[in-house]
Amino acid sequence: MAILKILVVENQQIINTGGFMRKKLLVYLMIGLLLILLIGCASDEKSIDEASNQVDVAVEAEPSYTYTYEDVTIELDAEAEPLLTQLGEENSYFESESCAFPGLDKIYTYPGIEIQTYEQDGVDHIISIGFLDDTIATNEGIRLFDSLSKVEEVYGDDYTEASGLYTYRKGNTTLSFLVKDDEVISIEYSLIVSETD
Fold it and tell me: Distance between CA 155 and CA 174 in Å, rounded?
């Protein structure tokens, strides 16, 4: 019985000491977890900042096609209203429900070009610029009815071709020439739109 009492007393002390140790261990664990969380949050913020800087740099460094019409530089995906205001009244206007985006597709026709917009969050953006006749040229001087060899001389041979459509890509934009019988019959600047946009 005396041995049992000694064991009980020793176990009681171990249990009592164990309770204190558990509290101490719990405090250390909580402090450790708090430090890990704080360090984790700090490194996440740094990663977000680093990612933001990389995205900013990538956006700034990635060129895209623009077109200058009557001293107005038109950037694809830019808000349409300020550009259209600068261009003045259009010759004609057409709108229809978009089959690709929520809202309306709108087409503004000016002498020699057609500007198409799409709506995103209630704001119209430029999606394409199409040439209507040979009175205008690309910024580099290519017009409708020029030869394919002239296009290649000006833009090079880094294009994709499908059924006579020669497409040059720059950033998130394309410049396409439809060629038939070695003659350019269509020119269009377009925004590349991904399925997630």
Answer: 12
